[in-house]
Specification:
By secondary structure, the protein is mainly α. It has two helices and no strands. Helix 1 packs antiparallel against helix 2. The longest helix has 45 residues. Keywords: Membrane, Transmembrane, Transmembrane helix.
Length: 93
Amino acid sequence: MPDAPEVRDPVVTPARVVIAVCLCAPFVALLWVGSYAKTDPAFIGIPFFYWYQMGWVVLSTLLTMIAYQLWQRDQRGRKAAAAARRGAEGGAK
């Protein structure tokens, strides 16, 4: 009797799409210079150009933390699913 085909988790999942968006958003926002290459509106005397970039430093940190947490949760879920499959295969034999 042939073996059952190996069941694999999907590579692209909603969590991984969110991770990709979290990691790509700062690059897109900062590489699109025309969107923030201006001085107005100033915030406490600091031109927009500078506080926009500094805001992205903080926001990038938060987005990277979110991406890391999602990645850790995704990996734990994949390990649990693989362990459950191995347990089901071992019990079926």
